[in-house]
């Protein structure tokens, strides 16, 4: 029996929602309002009897910011393990690996005092131009959802919450805070929401982040259909919904629609705005208390999880895992025989010329909010010298590390060294400024200096291996003439050693593309409607995303490196396919017929002929996959299970999933275009009426869908896409749409001046003028004080509209909010 004077431990709070709701209902209203926005850029409020939580960026590593917390500083963070970006992790096709990475991130997050890590990014790769594609997994929702669920489960098993983002249809950076994504509901349900549904149902992330963009006429943060109808009622989500940073346009509408936490925040600004909304009846007190209960629930979950002892974080083990992930996430695109044998793997005793500035100063991570300070950085050149001996490896930069133009002296030195070598290994790719959060790519080309280098090296020495560093597909005009190409993606801090492991043969390549690499930009099905504008972007390709378009039999398009493609140093044979009687699974034998251990990714696709179907059908769709590791000469039975909705489609009219009766093709192979086993399956279901618009029944190449046909698929009038004009500006109008007004020009110049310390920084190029010009008035900077003061943005809009009376009223309100801020 304890001594009477012994301290009695405080019981941990319950994290079930009803208990937290009762707590929220008992709080004074000021405490409730304080819980609904952040204290600063990275912390929630310590209010309502709970502590503040720390959130931080980190899909690929923990970016815990140091110093001032009232704004974002991409260059001042605690050193952390830098893992490969999502595009590389997805190329592993290995949910178990993603679970491991999540667990290690959770341990490191616990060590750094992080409560919620803002990731993973789960948006699909609609276009290769999206500046943030390196941060997303795939163009396929099945693969994306599986990997995200594994990542979330891993990190949350260690007591750190995940934030599934960006919900939903956040597939471009152009005008990302104002653009309205117009997507038909079948495409939404079967593609753009599907991966989120998998991750929510299987992993229950602590938070889901509502996206910047609009979706079918409503901002995602203000969409009750999305946040309450789909996320909570249909999927059973029981966590917190947080805004993307600065995404909230109308706070009353957001909290009324199911948002729970507005970030970043200044309570002294947000609370008065919600008080006014309460007085005007634009939001109900019960809605605000329910939102506050979700914040209390999140704190309780963090406290309960972190009360349990965690496995200590081991930096060396984390680096080894980062190296393993980089190996599995690299894709051998090509390895053609040259003089009777492939160039890779390289052999000891060969004189190697390593060419390219990226070999000595690698591109290894994304730029923008995922950028961090790595604990260490493995250099490819050093790793190759360690593998083969420094005396066997020469080096020349070949091109300037930054910029687009060639340097004749650097190029000449590279050509000279290449001519003296047995094999040339050239490192090229996308510099930081070419792909970055906030800015879409303008083309798919490499820097001109990189292409010129490859052309000159081919003349100097045909024994050429090209290593690509970058987060997304690029056009490779020389691909047919280069014998070997290794796509290393953005490999993180251990990417240099991983590349050496693969080139030397210490590791066998096993990565498979999780996105299609078509030959040219105009081949992508979204190219005619990307990035859209001025107000909307229409997803006219609908279900025909990536390989789903390329693999339609009526589309004859060359795809140099198709979805699922990846080579190995060994070979695999598929045989003895045995479908189950109910058609819901198939077992086949996979044999390693080569002389090296390796991993194969067996992929199962389902195809339904458009000619025999009454609804729109993609060329085929991934329905199952399995990664299998085999020693040389060994075989293993692999069973692929089809998901419950494998043969179903979503019917927007009836609001449910339906199955059309008829014949399907089951296609099993090593990529979407390397099919090894095929059989037919008769599926029972309904007989449907044909309602496929003409543009979708017989596809064109490149894809061109008439607006009336898309509207027929969309099922209702398309949202207004007229250009912005004076007299109709509002807080959501982008600055670049108002440049005819002198005040807008002045605001832009002021904004560039305000960000002057960041604009010129390579890693922080999301703050470049091109990006800043696209920001709407309501979010001219990510400073919490300004983003939390909507009346100021409305005042500026009304001044440019010439509505001076309205402007004066907004100015008074803005000054009142500023007074509250100073008092706070």
TrEMBL record:
Q: What would be an example GO MF term here? A: hydrolase activity
Which family is it part of?
Belongs to the glycosyl hydrolase 3 family.
* Pfam families (UniProt xref): Fn3-like, Glyco_hydro_3, Glyco_hydro_3_C
Which residue ranges does the record assign to the Fibronectin type III-like domain?
600-672
Q: Which PANTHER family match?
A: BETA-GLUCOSIDASE
Write down what this protein is called: Glycosyl hydrolase
Question: Top-down, what is the taxonomic lineage of the species of origin?
Answer: Bacteria, Thermotogati, Deinococcota, Deinococci, Deinococcales
What keywords tag this UniProt record?
Carbohydrate metabolism, Glycosidase, Hydrolase
Organism domain of life: Bacteria
